[in-house]
Design a protein that fits this description.
InterPro entries: AB_hydrolase_1 (IPR000073), AB_hydrolase_fold (IPR029058), AB_hydrolase_sf (IPR050266). Residues 31-134 form the AB hydrolase-1 domain. It comes from Schleiferia thermophila. An eight-stranded mixed β-sheet has the order 1-2-4-3-5-6-7-8, sandwiched between helices. It has eleven helices and eight strands. Helix content is 41%, strand content 19%. It has a single domain, classed as Rossmann fold, CATH 3.40.50.1820. The chain is α/β, with parallel strands linked by helices. α3 runs antiparallel to α7 and α4 runs antiparallel to α6.
Length: 270
């Protein structure tokens, strides 16, 4: 895939596979790790890069099976992906980092925070949840696996376009189509491995109450995946700061100004 010219591209070798990651900003600054969502890769963050503080060291990782990173196994558990994040940090000699995770990337961030709490400076969960999948959600994942095996491009494009608020489809039609094309190129094994991994992830809501680091949580008021108000109830914990903004599941496209406003607060807290 074509790499954004503003980024420095790097690879690590993990379990006989290449894992891609990209850097932006000050190599000596505090590290911020960006974790993309399902059917995305590091290119999702391109809409925000020009507004990110260059004093920080931004690290964008292509999770296994997405972007320029290869698949590791038939199932990519959130714990396995968290281990990939740790390997990247060790490669870069980063001892402490802030994590920003979008949707599935949030699941990975929580798995990382559970396993390596001493490495986390703070965490921002963007359109994500600490709860495990419901039985209904697991059924949907299983259907998604079967559909992806039959026609991965159609499944990916259709699923991706369903992540936006109704009003966003007209307002951001060109951007949505552009990103849906990227989603459609995701390899079928990357799709299946992520779905298999997400459906078996454990409930990590306890981490919201006992984590030794601060957690920011951003939800969309019209998120078709998660209901904003129900998520607020889940994230009512002493060390959690919750925000609801006007958006569906993809605020980096739907409401960049309001998302950046919250992220600036997050950066100031580092």
């Amino acid at each position: 895939m074509e790499v954004d010219k503003r980024l420095t591209e790097n690879f690590i070798y993990y379990k006989d596979t290449n894992i891609a990651f990209y850097q932006y900003g000050n190599p000596k600054g505090k590290a911020v790790v960006w974790l993309h969502g399902f059917l995305e890769d590091s290119r999702m963050w391109k809409y925000l890069i020009d507004d990110l503080p260059v004093s920080l060291r931004h690290i964008f990782i292509d999770l296994p099976g997405f972007g320029n990173s290869q698949c590791i196994a038939y199932v990519h558990t959130m714990e396995e992906m968290a281990e990939v994040v740790m390997r990247v940090l060790k490669e870069l000699k980063v001892k402490k980092a802030a994590l920003i995770g979008h949707s599935m990337g949030g699941y990975v961030a929580l798995a990382f925070g559970e396993k390596y709490p001493e490495t986390v400076r703070s965490m921002c969960l963007l359109h994500s949840t600490a709860a495990a999948d419901t039985p209904e959600k697991i059924q949907n994942r299983n259907r998604g696996i079967e559909l992806a095996k039959k026609n991965s491009e159609l499944f990916a494009k259709t699923t991706f376009k369903g992540l936006f608020a109704d009003w966003a489809h007209e307002q951001f039609a060109e951007l949505i189509d552009e990103q849906a094309e990227i989603a459609g190129k995701t390899v079928v094994q990357g799709i299946v491995a992520a779905l298999e991994g997400m459906k078996i992830r454990p409930d990590r809501t306890v981490l919201l109450h006992f984590a030794p680091f601060e957690i920011y949580h951003i939800a969309g008021d019209e998120d078709p995946v998660f209901k904003g108000q129900s998520l607020l109830e889940q994230f009512q914990a002493p060390k959690v700061r919750s925000y609801i903004i006007k958006a569906g599941h993809m605020s980096h496209i739907e409401n960049r100004p309001e998302l950046l406003k919250v992220l600036r607060e997050f950066f100031k807290s580092l």
